[in-house]
Design a protein that fits this description.
Layout (H helix, E strand, L loop, with lengths): L2 H18 L5 E4 L6 E9 L2 E10 L6 H46 L4 H16 L1 E10 L4 E8 L10 E3 L4 H8 L3 E3 L20 E8 L2 E11 L7 H44 L7 H15 L5 H13 L9 H4 L7 H7 L2 H9 L9 H5 L21 H16 L10 H10 L7 H12 L2 H6 L2
Antiparallel strand pairs: 1-2, 2-3, 4-5, 4-9, 5-6, 7-8, 8-9
């Protein structure tokens, strides 16, 4: 019979404590009954979670026992909160570590900075569940944010679009090295979208920065579930951005070192070629022809392509040890002189064999005078026993030698040189490599290179 009064009393009591925001014990008597309601605020680690309540039947009020039950409830709630919080932290930590791993793994296989930008943006959109993703590189010298990649890719390519560092939200995020969430911007008549080809409703912006130095910006626009951006997405995106920024900085240094290394190799190859004025530019041309052949063969592996380039540049490095009077001799070498010349592949190996990272190019140096039919030197290798890198460079080397002037011979025309290469298939050269060479020549790649 008293239930309706208890229900009404409880409802009124809740309204009362909500309005008063009580922070101590609170006792209230239900009207028309002798029931009393005991309330106490529940606070867990300074966070207000609600209220604990006990209903005392008439004549059975026991505040001490109620407080004791309250303390037990509070302790259980705290333990539950800690367990839940720990699980959430572990899940978040796992997600963050997974993201770092994905970016780091991507950097190991990256051939360019652009690949890391693209991979980073793909991961970001997947994690944040964004509709549109943009990633910018920042040039402090030029004072612009350059759009490196956009997902989804538009019909009219907008990559390379440069955004001036004026008072737009992108530049302000980069200048302040500060993450920004802007929701419902289309409801603000004063808001101006930074990019003319996009007008999303929500923005999540996180700078790519290392030690407060901005390298670029990740921008995510709108979510697939049409909800707003919150701090959890910002935290995840900051994790991605921080790792990506470190990776980008390290890769920039790595690619710069690699570029300097290749330049050094080119300079060394030029010194080799300049021993004989008739061979100036030979190694560089062999490199370009070799890469043209590799393209026709569909060789995409970046490490192998790099080995081809360096191997082509250094294939004649052993000629450094050949006396000038033999190299510069205006007539064809005699038998003893040929014996000296024929040692240059092995001499070249001796020069580079102890250099770290040169294992892949040693075959190019050692075997570039081997022949498909087994009549070459120094080891008379035959057919596919000759490494692929060598078979490619051998054709390129022979072609450039045929079209070039030497002290002991006149240059052939391009057409005659191509015919000579064709005639040497299955004898001096791998026929598959010769086919690839001819395809490159027919496309104008070889002819153009040969005339440089």
């Amino acid at each position: 019979t008293n239930y309706p009064f208890i229900k009404e009393g409880l409802f009124n009591s809740c309204k009362t404590i909500a309005s008063k925001k009580i922070d101590t014990d609170y006792l209230i008597t239900v009207k028309s009954t002798k029931y009393q309601f005991f309330f106490k605020p529940v606070t867990i680690y300074s966070n207000h979670a609600g209220y604990f309540g006990i209903i005392f039947p008439p004549g059975q009020r026991n505040i001490k026992k109620a407080n004791s039950i309250y303390e037990m409830f509070l302790e259980i709630s705290r333990l539950n909160y800690e367990s839940t919080d720990l699980i959430k932290d572990n899940i978040t930590h796992y997600k963050e570590m997974s993201l770092l791993s994905q970016i780091s793994e991507g950097s190991l296989n990256a051939n360019s900075i652009e690949e890391i930008y693209k991979r980073t943006l793909e991961i970001t959109l997947q994690v944040v569940k964004g509709k549109i993703g943009l990633i910018f590189s920042f040039s402090e010298k030029k004072g612009v944010l350059e759009l490196v990649h956009l997902i989804p890719e538009p019909d009219n390519k907008n990559e390379g679009y440069a955004l001036l560092m004026d008072e737009n939200i992108f530049s302000m995020s980069v200048k302040g090295v500060k993450s920004v969430i802007l929701n419902n911007v289309n409801d603000d008549s004063t808001f101006i979208h930074p990019l003319p080809f996009l007008s999303p409703n929500n923005y999540l912006l996180v700078p790519l920065a290392v030690k407060r130095k901005a390298l670029g910006l990740i921008a995510i626009c709108d979510k697939t579930d049409e909800t707003e951006f919150y701090s959890k997405e910002k935290k995840l995106l900051k994790t991605i951005a921080n790792q990506a920024a470190v990776t980008l900085e390290n890769l920039s240094l790595f690619f710069q070192l690699k570029e300097n290394f290749i330049s050094t190799i080119e300079a060394l190859a030029a010194v080799i070629d300049m021993k004989d004025k008739s061979t100036v530019g030979h190694s560089k041309r062999v490199r370009e022809i070799s890469i043209a052949i590799a393209d026709e063969l569909g060789i995409l592996d970046p490490k192998f392509r790099e080995d081809i380039q360096i191997g082509a540049l250094l294939h004649d490095i052993g000629k450094i040890g050949i006396p000038s009077e033999i190299l510069f001799k205006p007539t064809a070498p005699n038998k003893s002189e040929w014996e000296i010349i024929r040692k240059h592949p092995e001499n070249g190996v001796e020069i580079v064999k102890n250099l770290s990272g040169f294992d892949g190019i040693i075959p190019a140096i050692k075997y570039h005078h081997e022949r498909w039919d087994g009549s070459g030197y120094p080891e008379k290798l035959m057919g596919n026993d000759i490494p692929l890198i060598t078979r490619i460079i051998s054709v390129a080397d022979a072609y450039d030698t045929i079209i070039s002037r030497r002290p002991y011979k006149k240059p052939f025309t391009h057409e005659a040189a191509v015919e000579a290469i064709k005639q040497s298939a299955n004898a001096q050269f791998d026929p598959e490599i010769v086919d690839a060479f001819i395809k490159a020549y027919d496309k104008g790649k070889i002819l153009k290179i040969g005339e440089v």
